[in-house]
Amino acid sequence: MTSDPRTSRPLVLAGGAVLLLALALVALMLVRPSTSSPASPAASASAPADSSADVGFARDMAVHHQQAVEMAFIVRDGTSDEAVRRLAFDIINTQANQRGMLLGWLEMWGRAKSSPGPPMAWMGHSFTPRGDGALMPGMATDAELDALRAAEGEDAEVRFLKLMTAHHEAGAEMAEAAAASAGTEEIKNLASGMVLGQRSEIALMADMLKERGASAS
Q1: Using alpha carbons only, what angle is made at residue 189 by residues 110 and 35, rounded to the nearest 5 degrees?
Q2: In the chain, which residue ranges form alpha helices assigned H by DSSP?
Q3: pLDDT of residue 35
Q4: Which of 52, 195, 198, 200 has the fewest CB neighbours in a 10 Å radius?
């Protein structure tokens, strides 16, 4: 099924609106009266270190979530199945919101939103991108995304469910590491919630794949 620009445009706009709302909420939660700006050295003096698990997780998970949202938008245009579209809608809203929070915290901490170093170094096992679009474990390659865009109906559903299962499994592992090693309550709480949410969706997607005569492996 070919994506209709008239259909996808409102969805993209909706995703952008969620991101903006999340950023605004993070700002309201974290801003405290100060004579310095949030990005100034004084404002970031008590922020997590650039090499911390908090900052590393926020950067990496923001990238990881961005692709999950992209895949969810693709499958919404590629199938009419209500269960899959509902799951995609949940992923779009949840992960776009969480991504906005992560980027908002980086902004409040005065930390850059990207790092020149390899991803996942904060976990102790850096991942070297292979140049195929998969920037971290669990992420789909450019070829896999192209195949998902070209797929229709049940083929699109199965491809999406397999890709998202791998995506969630790697994301949950990353979130578990952050929940265990982060120094801020913001990251600990968000990461712990991500683990529960993504594990739950992995189980749901296993059932959905089984209904379609497929499995994640």
Answers
A1: 30
A2: 5-30, 41-44, 53-78, 82-109, 142-150, 153-181, 185-211
A3: 29
A4: 200
Query: Residues 55, 111: contact at Cβ < 8 Å?
Result: yes
pTM of the predicted protein model: 0.80
Report which of 191, 199, 133 is spatially closest to residue 165, judged by C-alpha positions.
199
Whether 127 contacts 137, CB under 8 Å: yes
Give Cα 133 to chain centroid, integer Å. 15
Tokens encoding 160: 């999406």
Q: Quickly count: other Cβ atoms within 10 Å of residue 131's Cβ.
A: 9
Tell me the C-alpha to C-alpha distance, in Å, between residue 58 and each of 63, 65, 104, 106, 127.
9, 10, 9, 7, 16
Residue segments in the chain with a per-residue pLDDT below the cut of 50: 1-15, 17-43
**DSSP conformation class of 137:** T
The number of angstroms, rounded, from the C-alpha of 91 to the middle of its chain's C-alpha atoms is: 9
pLDDT in tens, 112-171: 999 888 899 999 887 887 789 899 999 999 999 999 999 999 999 999 999 999 999 999
Query: What angle separates helix 5-30 from helix 82-109, to the nearest 10 degrees?
Result: 40
Name residues whose C-beta falls within 8 Å of residue 166's C-beta, 6 or more positions apart in sequence: 138, 140, 216
Nearest residue to 67 (alpha-carbon basis) of 191, 160, 201, 179: 160
How far is residue 123's CA from residue 109's CA, in Å, rounded to a whole number? 20
